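re: that chain from earlier
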Amino acid sequence: MFNYNFPTAVRLTLLFFSGIFVIMTSSYLRTYEAPLIRTRGTEDEVPGKYRVRLRAGHSVEQHSAATGYNVAEHLYFTIGRPTYTEWVVYGVKDVTPEMLAALRKYKGVISVYPDYAWVPPVQAIIETWKEEGPSAVYGKTLLHDSSDYDPSSPPEPPTYRLSSPAEPASYDPSPPPHP
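^ sequence. v structure.
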């Protein structure tokens, strides 16, 4: 009825299933490493500071347990909640190259970003303002260009009222006072 070579069919079937087996096991045998995404040049990077983006359902505690490093000691901010519908981004500082490699090998990490020096330190901004005037720092900070600004007596910082969980937050629609 069928005219085919039986040993060839058996060999092709075995080859097919062995290929499937290799494909399935190779994904488990490969070591995972999350990408280190650089959006700017390396000269602007802050050494040892990184932002780590975790997959939904993963937490900083799980990441600490899996990597063998106490991430909480190096944590400086967290965004998001460890639920199954959201991702979590957290920042770590004082990271060694060995710790960075361990953080990237955790399968719950989507990506790692280096922190960049986006703006100069506040003290440097104030010194530049005093020496060169407001136009020298315009566009680099949120400081406004005001001719009546006196650097020797900076304005008071705004105060914010934090509400307790039992008390609803208050909202004042009026604009904040001008410094």
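The CA atoms of residues 43 and 116 lie 9 Å apart.
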